């Protein structure tokens, strides 16, 4: 049921990305951009659309903000998969960009996907109010740059060569940047587009983003690689501290379930109108991909 | 004389970049961002400041747009120097980022420098008018993304494995994207900040940007590596078509000189007020770095 809602959003976001990249021609780097930004769960884009619906923002406008965050997310995955980073050859069940093309194309395609995200947010398709577009751009830059996603990635890299495994507080801080900040941006986007208070959705997304990451660590241990569409067991192999290594499988699952309860409670101010977001919070710890 | 003006602008831009990165802490990835965005000629930032002066735009505002384009330029250099791209170990006389740190840090530092460029342009430090900030963001995204700088880079990579060397028209198209688009953005920025016509500065920058690239090809053949601060002779070594291989040294210099004349003529509408920009055009074909 929720999966159908998510799939519907995913389809609309893909069409929007096709539209914005239509004028870009068909050079390998552009084909790589299309390839990298197709597929996936589209959880971030879905959160944008759903928080927009909750605030009465036109879906025809919100779809562009959803496409922007999926372009940004796709850039981060392409660069994250590079040999010098996580060195992954499989993503969403398909060869990663540097495997299908080459490393240079992967670097450039990621670069241009990041640029595209900001270009989309700056366009009047997103909102007639220039201040709303700027607020979306500024918050996305903070969520994804040296104080957000890149910070998380850098902490992750530093952890690989550290002599002492990370503590729970350190992993939480790392994940706040690496995945949490962009999930927060997505959930807050609709409130931002309506010039409404972002606090309830921020609290929802913080708890949900952390639950999402704990579920990822659980999947890495006991998931099905064919369903997940990527190589699993990597963290244990690398001897990295994860929520599972620190809390155990049972403890990690319990913590994730507790965070989902927190996320759901944060939605109280919206009443029943937020039921789909509540289902989304449940989804992140029951998914198998 | 002009070199002093350029150096003065460079110093002010460095201070501004220091200021905007001050809250970022001192993780290696942030140190790499600072390292990569320090030094250099600052030609693009200078063009922003000078076109702003020409249009009566407050230098205290324009400095942020100048810092933004230098952050964007720095990102492109860090990624361009990567082993999978141009594989350069020296830049501005110093080890490149992936040599001084590692490839992962270079990818992330470049990524975050791009993000920073858009974050700076979105801030009210640049302009009180939200529409001006959005116009700067949209034009920078177009100049640097899949239809601008990344397109030029991708064409450059494709040329390396092509069976037939590029023609003059193809190299010109490639360089329009690779270096021309961002030089145009810089020269136009002041007009954009003043909501004035960008056409004269666009014509100036188009001719000047191409002259700049031809001069680069000339430097690659007969420059002094110590002064240039980078490895030279790479294009001939790689058998790449360049303006020099297609026009000869004498022909390339003549074409560059002709383009500088065109650039200078494009400034006629501004009268004597544009003399510093005229000197800048002369500078690009007389520089030794």
Query: Architecture of chain A, according to CATH?
Result: Orthogonal Bundle
CATH superfamily of chain A: Farnesyl Diphosphate Synthase
Describe the oligomeric state of these chains in a short phrase: homodimer
* Mean pLDDT across all amino acids of chain A: 94
N-end to C-end Cα span of chain A: 16 Å
Task: Supply the number of structural domains of chain A.
Answer: 1
Strand pairing plus helix content of chain A: what structural class? mainly alpha
Quote the CATH topology of chain A: Farnesyl Diphosphate Synthase
| Annotation, overall tally of beta strands of chain A | 2
Order of helices and strands of chain A: HHHHEEHHHHHHHHHH
Shape of chain A: globular
Largest interface: A-B, 48 and 48 residues
Tell me the strand order in the biggest sheet of chain A.
Answer: 1-2
Approximately what portion of the residues of chain A adopt beta-strand conformation? under 5%
Largest sheet of chain A: 2 strands, antiparallel
In CATH's first tier, which class of chain A applies?
A: Mainly Alpha
How would you describe the overall organization of this protein?
The structure is a homodimer of 289-residue chains. The relative contact order of chain A is 0.12. A two-stranded antiparallel sheet of chain A has the order 1-2. Chain A has a single domain (2-286), classed as Farnesyl Diphosphate Synthase, CATH 1.10.600.10. The first copy, chain A, is built from 14 helices and two strands; from the N terminus they run H-H-H-H-E-E-H-H-H-H-H-H-H-H-H-H. Chain A has helices at 2-21, 28-36, 43-54, 59-80, 97-100, 103-122, 130-144, 149-161, 168-193, 199-222, 225-228, 234-237, 243-266, 275-286, and strands spanning 90-91, 94-95. Helices cover 72% and strands 1% of the residues of chain A. Chain A has 289 residues and is an all-alpha fold. The longest helix of chain A is centred in the middle third of the chain and has 26 residues, at 168-193. Chains A and B meet through helix 2, helix 6, helix 7 and helix 8 of A and helix 2, helix 6, helix 7 and helix 8 of B.
């Amino acid at each position: 049921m929720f999966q159908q809602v998510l799939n519907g959003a995913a389809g609309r976001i893909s069409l929007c990305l096709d539209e914005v990249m239509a004028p870009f021609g068909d050079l390998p780097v552009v084909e790589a951009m299309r390839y990298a930004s197709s597929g996936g769960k589209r959880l971030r884009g879905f959160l944008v659309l759903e928080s927009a619906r909750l605030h009465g923002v036109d879906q025809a406008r919100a779809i562009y903000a959803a496409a922007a965050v999926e372009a940004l997310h796709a850039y981060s995955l392409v660069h994250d998969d590079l040999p010098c980073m996580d060195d992954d050859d499989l993503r969403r069940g398909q060869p990663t960009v540097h495997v299908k093309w080459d490393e240079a194309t992967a670097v450039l395609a990621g670069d241009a996907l990041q640029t595209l995200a900001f270009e989309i947010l700056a366009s009047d398709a997103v909102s007639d109010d220039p201040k709303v577009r700027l607020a979306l751009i500024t918050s996305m830059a903070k969520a994804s740059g040296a104080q957000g996603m890149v910070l998380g990635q850098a902490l992750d890299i530093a952890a690989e060569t550290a002599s002492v495994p990370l503590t729970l507080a350190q992993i939480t801080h790392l994940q706040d940047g690496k995945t949490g900040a962009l999930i927060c941006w997505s959930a807050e986007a609709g409130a931002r587009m309506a010039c409404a208070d972002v606090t309830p959705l921020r609290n929802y997304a913080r708890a949900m983003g952390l639950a999402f990451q704990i579920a990822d660590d659980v999947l890495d241990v006991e998931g099905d690689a064919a369903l997940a569409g990527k190589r699993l067991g990597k963290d244990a192999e690398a001897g990295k501290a994860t929520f599972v290594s620190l809390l155990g499988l049972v403890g990690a699952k319990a913590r994730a379930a507790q965070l989902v309860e927190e996320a759901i409670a944060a939605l109280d101010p919206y009443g029943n109108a937020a039921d789909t977001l509540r289902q989304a919070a449940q989804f992140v710890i029951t998914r198998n991909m």
